[in-house]
Amino acid sequence: MNEEFINTFVSNMMKYLSHIPNVDAEVGTPYLIESDASISYDITGIIGISGKRKGCVYFTAPRIFMSHLLMMLGVKDRSNENLLDLAGEIANTISGNARSDFGEKFHISVPVVVEGEPQNLYLPERVRSFAIPITWRTYTPVLVVSLEDE
Amino acid sequence: MMKLLIVDDSNVIRSRIDNIYAKSYEIEVVGKAVNGRQAVAMLKDLEPDIVTMDLTMPEMDGIASIKRFMELQPSVKILVVSALSDKATGIKALSKGARGFLCKPFTDEELTTALQKLIDAKNRE
To answer: Residue A1: its pLDDT value, please?
Structure first.
């Protein structure tokens, strides 16, 4: 994955956050995930990618962060179901928006959402996986992009 | 009052759109469906004027749903609300009968502006 490729996801993440009222979150500098251990917080939304590139994009965040986002979006029901749903929707939106750069052969799955540390989420060794950190208040959710090169 | 059907597999998106129009004098949310199959089943009873339609959904996706909606109720006006932002997808949705395309993420104002265009089209009929 080259710099331009990563920038697409950084831009999409910034765009997503800019559409949420009163959330002045910042997107940090992406970094390479060195180990094969995945990064995960309380809630994770995962999108499988197929087509010209294969892999996954996932968004993982502390529960309290997701609860704040729901509140800012005007959704009154901050149930566990909605916290999970929002994580999937964020991963879906960031991945789907990438098709404006990568075209319709960048296929995305419906979201899979996981509560707690995912047991079967392994980042393949031969793929360079990047973490894109987000900072808002004291929270630091992360978008992880793990995709094969073309 | 325009009858709106919301079709999206995300409960958050369905709730959000529902909330936006909860006190509207122009739009009444008459139904919410979690996928295209459920939406098609609701179509005859609800007879919506306008629809917000996601594309990536389990069981029946948005493109297949738009095609079915056009067969069953050609007068319905469909706004695609999707994260899929490539031109080819937009063209495909419009060619099947959708009247507009709003890319996620969206603000309340962007959604209202996009739906107003559908309402205007409906009122011109």
So the answer is: 64
Rounded mean pLDDT of chain A?
88
Q: pLDDT over 90 for what percent of chain B?
A: 95
For residues A115 and A119, give the distance between their C-alpha atoms in angstroms, rounded to a whole number.
Answer: 10
Chain B residue with minimal CA distance to A102? B86
How high is the pLDDT of residue A3?
77
CB contact under 8 A, A99 and B9: no
* Mean per-residue pLDDT of chain B: 96
pLDDT less than 70: residues of chain A: 1, 36-37, 118-122, 124, 150
Of residues A78, A75, A85, the one with CA closest to residue B11: A85
Residues of the domain holding B61: 2-124
Residues of B in contact with A69 (CB under 8 A): none
Q: What is the CATH number of the domain that holds B106?
A: 3.40.50.2300
Residue type, B48: P
Q: Which of B9, B12, B110 to mutate against chain A (most A CBs within 10 Å)?
A: B12
Output the CA–CA distances (angstroms, integers) from residue A80 to A19, A38, A47, A67, A87, in the order listed.
Answer: 23, 23, 19, 9, 11
Q: Inter-chain contact A103–B82, Cβ cutoff 8 Å?
A: no
Residue B16: which of A73, A81, A109 has the nearest Cβ?
A73
Query: What total number of domains does chain B contain?
Result: 1
At the fourth CATH level, which superfamily is domain A3-147?
CheC-like (3.40.1550.10)
